[in-house]
Amino acid sequence: MSLAPRAVLVHRTTEYEELVARHGTHGQAAFFLSSRGRDIEEVAERHRRARRALAEVTAAVPLNWRRALLERADLDRFLFAPEDVIVVVGQDGLVANAAKYLDGQPVIGIDTDPGRNPGVLVRHRPRDAAALLASAGGAADELTMVEAVTDDTQRLVALNEIYLGAPGHQTARYRLGLDGDRGVVEAQASSGVLVGTGTGATGWLRSVWQERGGTLPLPAPTEDRLLWFVREAWPSPATGTSLVGGGLTASAALTLTVESDRLIAFGDGIESDALQLTWGQTVRVGVCGRRLRLVG
């Protein structure tokens, strides 16, 4: 007998909750903000909207379904099941936070603050939750993801981008090469390497792309193509700057061999969940075989 679907409602602690937790009471948090020319009511109203949205989405879950409420900080400890339907209630970035832990489960993005969020990944309103849950097993956009795999089989997956560089944003030293480039590699010293997807092309990757003049075509979110950029490559007698950007198809990969005591690789801005890379270690970055199934 198959299990009923489980709706996993992913949310995050609001700014208001963080302020009250830090200062102890609403009044103390209000005093702290007022001393800096801010009104706590603005933050409190966003909190109320977020909690109303979460309550409305929770009420829309069918009575015969199982359900789980999951805070962002617990994502890496939660065991997702194949029959789960993931409902992200919050900002676009919360979808990216959840994506790395999923393997084909449908994801519904609910925007708690329309007009403040871009709505790239949280495309729907709370009132749409019931209809979306009813059709969650149907058509969905298959969004491309990026992965990094080390020579000792560590693996990192991200929806937007993977950054490889030195912790603390110091100079990263490594050797960079491309598949199919006749084995050519270049020793580099830089602020790190960014490899992103079409979804990431709406965020950090786009800002680097614009700085470089926007000459490379940006990939679509569902396209099996990535863009990569070396940030602030430094020319010297021992390091070059000829390999500083380009595209990667599904069959290609970027290879980086560490020539520093320590580098890290992290995805979607979560530096606390990073691969630790040591001298001589090699990591390959390319299109991930998994996709994020985003409903609507």
TrEMBL record:
Tell me the domain of life: Bacteria
Q: Which InterPro entries match?
A: ATP-NAD_kinase_N, ATP-NAD_kinase_PpnK-typ_C, NAD/diacylglycerol_kinase_sf
According to its UniProt entry, the protein's GO biological process terms are:
NAD+ metabolic process
| GO MF, one annotated term | NAD+ kinase activity
Protein name, UniProt field: Inorganic polyphosphate kinase
